[in-house]
Amino acid sequence: MPRKILIIEDQATMRRNVALMLQLEGHTALTAANGIEGIETARRERPDLILCDVMMPEMDGHAVLRALHEDETLRGTPFVFLTAKGDKSDVSEGLGLGADAYLTKPVSREDLLSTVNEHLKS
Amino acid sequence: MKKIRQLIWGQQCLRALLLIVTASAASAQTMPDDIFAAPLVTIKDLNARKTGLDRRVRLRGALITIMESRTLILHDGSGAAAVLAGDPASASPEVAGRGVPLPPMQPGDVIEAAGEVVDQTDYNAKFLGMVRCHARVVGRGAVPEPEEVSLETFLAYRDEARWVTFEAVVHAWMLQASAMTYAAGDDRTWTTVSVRSPDLAAFPKNLFGARLRFTGLATGLAINFRGADMIVPGPAFVELVKPGRDSPFGAPFHPASEIAAGRAPKGEPVSTKGVLVGQERTVLYIRGEDASLCVSLQQPWARPGNPPGIAYADCGPLPALKIGDELEVSGHQFTTERYEPFDLASASVRVTGHRENIEPVETTLARIAAGGHTSDLVKVRARLLSLQAAREKEGKWRATLLLASEGRRMTAVHQSAAPHSFETLNEGDDVIIQAVVDRATSTSPRLLWILKPSDVESLGVSFEVVTRRLRLWGGIALAVFGILGGWVLLLRRTQLRQARMTAELKTAKDAAQASERRWKLLFEQSPLSVQIFAPDGRTKLFNDAWRRLFRLSDEQGLAFNVLQAPDLIESGAVNHIRRAFEGKVVQVPPVPFPVPGDPPETRWIGGLLYPLKNEAGEISEVVVIHHDITEMKRAEQAMLEINQTLEKRVNERTGELQRAQSELRRALEQERELGELKSRFVTMVSHEFRTPLGIIMSAVELLQHYSDRLPEDEKKRQLQEIQSSTKHMGGLMEQVLLLGRAEAGKLTCKPAPLDLAAFAERVIDETQSITSGKCRVTLDTEAVPASSNVDESLLRHILSNLVANAVKYSPEGSEVTLRVRCRGPQAVFEVSDRGIGIPEKDRARLFEAFHRCSNVGDTPGTGLGLVIVKRCVELHGGSIEVASEPGLGSTFTVRIPILN
């Protein structure tokens, strides 16, 4: 069953490739180039899952997550960080904020898809 | 008969010993028990204290009897001992014995007992034995027979105990806690025997003079006054040989003379009568019809060998007797020297009447010395030669009066609580003394006992003394008569007196001269400087110490006026000094005083001034004793200097330490910052690598998994992404490595001659080639020499980065200018573009690693280029500036010194 996934990523190639991969897997991929755009898209489109980078200009991934959690209707949407920040402290910080999963770049297709599918089910 | 009994006894002992040895061998195999593992000792060693106190030991012996269910009397051939099963600390025998049960046993059983050695005081006796004993029966032997001994023999036992038997006549008895203590004796001595019995009421009361046989343990120890010489286990060991009376009185009567002559039967009770003429504690002097007697009262609980004070301490009230009482006396005579002073010992008395006015017998010392009036009250007249008082035991005083009469001398003694009871007596007095005559013994001469101080009466100076004095006075009277009789003698006497006065005068003069000499020497040789002033302040006298101190001639010294000395006026000391001239004692504090010499010096001199007053109370002189504290001052100064030096050094050192500490803190701070920087750098590098890696990964996986579904141009695009990301990573890596080299100090400035214009052109060409001619880059040179000394490599990094950046952030086809100028020793490079510019907020972080401006958008970059530029400029000793207008363009200006 095709699902709606929002990708918030400032790096264009990465954003495009992830979206392409998810589309090829049968999902509907929505993209946003920064945090503010991402939140707007989320409110508008009600995605089934959000994939979000951490280091972004204007508004970073942590701020996005906090903003989404403040929104009653979006609080339950699975939220996965996909980031180049790969230190242990970064991972625990991200999960501590309430993210459902934390993927570090470079991420394999297998890891990406299994994480996405797992959190889509629930 | 006795010999036969001893023979049998010896054989029995041997048999018992044999049995003990056999039994012990058997028991050791069958009853290995820790309690009985204590070392085996003989009773003889135990009693001789060879085993040591408080040790656990083991005895083996034949049981004689059990006393009160808990004390075993054992015999092992070497002696006898009492051992106690239980704890002696407990007052009650029931409690004491608890917890140490005794197995059934009977007399004659061979017993092994293990316990602790103690000096035991029990049964009113002191004996060595064991306590906390465990006992067991190890065999069967015979009940040992007691040894037949005399009282004297068993009283002589020391540090040994025996099982003995003897006969004795009862003098008296005393009921104690759970025993009956008998005083009983033979013809030579008497002793005490303690018979244990639970039923004391059962003892017969008619035993005065009875003959009893006692069988028991002769303890053989030095016995205290409460103790008994022998312990008899029970009434069964006492045998009545001859019955006695129910009263100590009523024994066969003997007149005093017969008793005094020692003709009464020895050891048997005898009685007599008399009047009490003297008493010294428990010793009575009794005048009979034809002789007087000295009688020692019976004290069954007292021992003749003990000190008198202790011996009678606990005996209860003595019979209340008065001089003049008519007495019935019952006592015993002994044959031994021990009872020599007494005609009767161990005696009882009772009063039968009273007689007033007991007259002493008037006699002489000569008659007494010849042996008359023994134990009687006498009155003698004698001259007192000396009187001495000495302290005796127990706070008693003993006054000893040495008397003389008709060429005989004799001592009279009085004992009292007060030190001296004869204040009215003077040596040389004639005295009349009333006293009891004591007999001479082998240890003491015959003496008189004065019963009370008032029994000595002084008659004043004795006639003999008076006669001697009269003779003396008679002589003097004759001489006076002679003097009165002749004026020649008178004249002679006057002459003599004059001569004596002259001599006295001379002696006084000599003494005065000697005194003056002595005072002069004392003054001159005093180590203290002393100066004497007249009341007007002039100097009158000084001593050698003064001369040494002030180093002045006598003329100078005598010219000195203490009230007018300028130094003293100036220092204000004169105000103090003046008070001495007003009659006060004054302490003048030390003041600096110039002292001539080579070199002259200043000495700190203080002084004590005091006025001398004559008989009228006027001040005649003022004396000063100087004290020179110059050396102390110098030492003080030296100490002060040392202190100051030390303080200075401490301060310096403290400063150094504080500086070192702050430097260290700064260094640590720098180190910490550097560490943080490095760790941040590593994090950032990894992040920068992860992004292109992520792209490569995603592209590769798209191509790998979805190749069949991807259109060709998409595939091509992905391959290009891979390529550009790889290239980006390569550049990134190079720049990181370059920075790493710079940090490691491997990037150095090595100036060499370089044609700057030509070099700049090469850089532009290279950049144009890399950027595919995106922008037009122009070179503008001004006053650039053909050769400048710069580091080509550093300059290449600087310029190529700046030019490449300018091109990268400029719109296609726009112009970029590289201007090169030389200003004196400085080369100035300006790179200008018309690109996107640098936003204000990013200016501060422009040279931070991995920081990219907010307006770069998708323009690729590592964020390291400007970092490298700045590092290279610094290495070259130059500077870099930025001027920028967002949207209009930027100009980077680099100034580097041209090195020689």
Report on the structure:
The complex is a heterodimer of chains A (122) and B (900). Chain A has helices at residues 12-24, 35-45, 61-70, 88-96, 109-121; strands spanning 4-8, 28-32, 49-52, 79-83, 101-104. Chain A is of the alpha/beta class and 122 residues long. Chain A has one domain: 3-Layer(aba) Sandwich (Rossmann fold). Chain A has a five-stranded parallel beta sheet with strand order 2-1-3-4-5, sandwiched between helices. In chain A, helix 3 (61-70) links the parallel strand 3 (49-52) and strand 4. By secondary structure, chain B is α+β, with helices and mostly antiparallel strands. Among the domains of chain B are: 2-153, Bacterial OB-fold (OB fold (Dihydrolipoamide Acetyltransferase, E2P), Beta Barrel), CATH 2.40.50.200; 247-358, OB fold (Dihydrolipoamide Acetyltransferase, E2P); 361-461, OB fold (Dihydrolipoamide Acetyltransferase, E2P), CATH 2.40.50.140; 526-628, Beta-Lactamase, CATH 3.30.450.20; 748-897, Histidine kinase-like ATPase, C-terminal domain (Heat Shock Protein 90, 2-Layer Sandwich). Chain B starts with a helix and ends with a strand. At the A-B interface, helix 1 of A face helix 14 and helix 15 of B.
* Second-tier CATH architecture of chain A: 3-Layer(aba) Sandwich
How do the SSEs of chain A run, as a string of H and E? EHEHEHEHEH
CATH topology label of the domain at 2-153 in chain B: OB fold (Dihydrolipoamide Acetyltransferase, E2P)
Overall mean pLDDT of chain A = 89
Cα-based radius of gyration of chain A, to the nearest Å: 13 Å
CATH topology of chain A, by name, is Rossmann fold
**Measured on Cα atoms, how large is the radius of gyration of chain B?**
65 Å
Which helices and strands appear, and what pairs or packs with what?
The complex is a heterodimer of chains A (122) and B (900).
Chain A: E1 4-8, H1 12-24, E2 28-32, H2 35-45, E3 49-52, H3 61-70, E4 79-83, H4 88-96, E5 101-104, H5 109-121
Parallel strand pairs in A: 1-2, 1-3, 3-4, 4-5
Chain B: H1 2-30, H2 43-47, E1 56-67, E2 71-75, E3 80-84, H3 93-97, E4 109-122, E5 125-140, E6 147-148, H4 151-155, E7 162-175, E8 179-185, E9 190-196, E10 211-218, E11 230-232, E12 238-242, H5 256-260, E13 269-280, E14 283-287, E15 292-297, H6 308-311, E16 325-332, E17 344-354, E18 361-362, H7 365-369, E19 377-391, E20 397-405, E21 408-416, E22 429-438, E23 447-449, E24 456-461, H8 463-485, H9 487-524, E25 530-533, E26 539-542, H10 544-550, H11 554-559, H12 566-571, H13 573-581, E27 586-595, E28 601-613, E29 619-628, H14 630-706, H15 712-743, E30 752-754, H16 756-770, E31 776-782, E32 788-790, H17 792-808, E33 815-823, E34 826-832, H18 865-875, E35 879-885, E36 889-897
Parallel strand pairs in B: 3-5, 6-7, 9-11, 15-17, 18-19, 21-23, 31-33
Antiparallel strand pairs in B: 1-2, 1-4, 2-3, 4-5, 7-8, 7-10, 8-9, 10-11, 10-12, 13-14, 13-16, 14-15, 16-17, 19-20, 19-22, 20-21, 22-23, 22-24, 25-26, 25-29, 27-28, 28-29, 30-32, 33-34, 34-36, 35-36
